[in-house]
Amino acid sequence: MSSNSIYSFSAKTTSITYPWPPEVTGIERIALSAKGDLQRLLSAFFDRPISIATVYSHTYSHISSDLPPVPLSLPPDAAAIAAVSPNMPILQKRQVHLQCSGKVVCVATSQVRITSPECARLFLVEKYAIGQMFARMEKVPSFELMSVGLGPVVDDFPSEKMSPEGGMQSDERYQLWRKYKLHVSDFECEILEVFPTRDMFVGGTSWLDSKLLDKATSLPSTDVVDNPATVPKFRTGLVLSLGLAAASLAIALGVSL
After folding, report:
1. Are 190 and 110 spatial neighbours (Cβ–Cβ below 8 Å)?
2. Which of 20, 24, 158, 178 has the most other CB atoms within 10 Å of its CB?
């Protein structure tokens, strides 16, 4: 499904119009309609802070308008920043995790194009994330929702395979995703966002806390927190240990009497 502009307004009317999949709920439509302020909306929904963790970022610059871009070391020096222009942009391919209470609530894979020294300085030197860039510049970006889907991502979008330690433990059948564009003068992005499970929009903080509880009751050395075969063994061992300790205490008290 695709659309150019889903947002329209008149003097007294505002409308969001898009051919949503029929299964999508109201709270999911709010998240899918976010235009550069997804962190703010998720923070309001969960009533907890949302933080950004970078998985990877690859940055390229033009040393000549006639040559292809070359890798750029970060942080860039003053000359590289000063050289940025529409004809010699800085490009970045990046993937970040939006995290809440230690859980990944969204994976965002982005392609960013920067065409001014000021935007390059904010993004690459001061390290503002994409959403915070628009807040920092006090500009509302133009927004184009390109596609929305349930289950595995079917839209072609260049990205790298996440490392096992990336924190994503989800079944692709239950995820929700969207692809969209954001643009202000000198800063534009094409972004693929994947919400790991629709359960998060149903359970809210209960979903967050249930995941944390699973972690707290798992063996510290295991990485398969969500593996049902692991937790029962640990809990069974804990019950047996407590039972043996209680029996020993009873025997000790009986002898002393």
Report:
1. yes
2. 178
Q: Which residues contact 139 (CB under 8 A, 6 or more apart)?
A: 184, 185
User: Which residue, 181, 203, 225, sits at the end of a domain?
Assistant: 203
Find where tokens 């994330």 sit.
129
Rg (CA), the chain: 24
* Residue 67 and residue 130 share a domain: yes
pLDDT tens digits, one per residue of 167-190: 445 578 889 999 999 999 999 999
Total domains present in the chain: 2
Structural contact between residues 59 and 124, judged by C-beta atoms closer than 8 angstroms: yes
The predicted-structure confidence for 25-71, as pLDDT tens digits, reads as follows: 999 999 999 988 899 999 999 999 999 999 999 999 988 878 889 99
Exposed (0-12), middle (13-18) or buried (19+): which is 193, by Cβ within 10 Å?
buried
* Planar angle of CA 193, 198, 203, nearest 5 degrees: 125
Taking alpha carbons only, the member of 71, 38, 78, 69 closest to residue 57 is 71
DSSP 166: G
192 and 223, same domain (yes or no): no
What are the residues whose beta carbons fall under 8 Å from the beta carbon of 5, sequence distance 6 or more? 143, 144
Across the beta sheet with 142-150, the strand order is 70-71, 51-61, 90-100, 103-114, 187-195, 176-184, 142-150
Task: Tell me if 249 sits within 8 A of 257, measured CB to CB.
Answer: no
Percent of the chain with pLDDT over 90: 60
* pLDDT attached to residue 241: 45
